[in-house]
Amino acid sequence: MISELQKSVWAQLTAKLDRLPHALLLHGASGVGKLALAERFAQLLLCEKRGQGISPCGACQGCRWFLGGNHPDVRFIEPEAIARNLPGPEEGEEDKPRDARPSLQIKIEQTRALGSFVNVGSHRGGRRVAIVHPAEDMNTATANSLLKSLEEPPPGAVFLLVSHRPARLLPTIRSRCVPVPVPLPAPRAAAAWLAAQGVRAPERWLAFAGGAPLRALEHATGERGQAIERVLRAIASGDRAALGEVKGRDDLEPLAEVLQKMALDRAFAALSGRSKYGGSAVAGDARAWLAYARAMGRNRVLTSHPLNPKLFAAEMVAGMPKN
Ligand SMILES: [Zn+2]
Predict the structure, then answer these.
(1) How far does residue 60's CA lie from ligand 1's centre (Å)?
(2) Of 14, 151, 241, 289, which one has the greatest count of Cβ atoms within 10 A?
(3) What residue segments make up the domains of the chain, in order of their start?
């Protein structure tokens, strides 16, 4: 449960339930559990049987609707590309024009619709909750439209903004929200939490995710995790040829990510004697590995472009510093 992993933040969120600010800004590194906290908190606010408790009951109508994704008094304002219940691009659809792809930005229609959502009375006679995630993914016009709702909040409306990069928000938006910093949890608690989610070798995945447990969970489960695992194995065995053996384009970004972190580990090892992402602590030529890490960071972005996966993978591996 996220409230166990981020106990002090949860305590802070639930301390003043009856005098709740109308807008909170949960901010912190990617993968520390900000969105999960916002969701759990929204469920708590909409729970109809919580009494004085600080946990949602999980069984009332409000909780069941929330968990089923169809509570009428909650709205998720997210870019189409990450919005829940939307199918991803199908195989063979990659040649479609770019504007046919789901938007990476929150659209102004979404924030405008929020105005009428919060101003209409709640369906269940309780609060209305809007979760805006990630709040930095808005252009100025969209942010200003959200600002209108934040400036004149109707009673009962609660805005939960979630941001990995709060510095990118409009200062006027930041100033309307009570900041709630969400830190990296202690490594031991994070590893125990991951183990409870069924993750094997939780310490290794946690290290790979730079200590961010939800990011680690994302890595350790699913197809992307398998691609990462394969690359990590190839690195451990020192088999460069196996490293570049990608099955398709989906393998490129995980490959670039592992290579980037491996490179950062070699550079950190040279500078501080320790690795940061659980990789080799053998010091390398710091400057060469840092340059390579930067190149891999750029490649992670490029892998969404049309390109020849095998050629691209081979080039990434060939560019690796020798020591
Ligand atoms: Zn409930």
Answers:
(1) 4
(2) 289
(3) 2-181, 221-318
Q: Over the chain (323 residues), what is each successive 10-residue block's mean pLDDT?
A: 89 88 95 95 92 84 94 93 56 48 88 86 83 94 93 90 95 95 93 93 90 91 84 84 85 92 91 84 88 94 85 91 85
Q: Give, to the nearest 10 degrees, the angle between helix 34-46 and helix 7-14.
A: 40
Report the relative pairing of strands 128-132 and 74-77 from DSSP bridges: parallel
CA distance 76 to 183: 23
- Phi and psi at residue 286, in whole multiples of 5°? -55, -45
Q: What is the CATH number of domain 2-181?
A: 3.40.50.300
Ion ligand 1, residue ranges at CB < 5 A: 47, 49, 56-57, 60, 63
Q: What is the pTM of this model?
A: 0.79
Residue type, 283: A
Distance 58 CA to ligand 1 centre (A): 5
Task: Say how far apart CA 199 and CA 183 lie, in whole Å.
Answer: 22
Q: Is 23 helix (H, G, I), strand (E, B) or coil?
A: strand
Q: Are 117 and 101 in contact (CB under 8 A)?
A: no
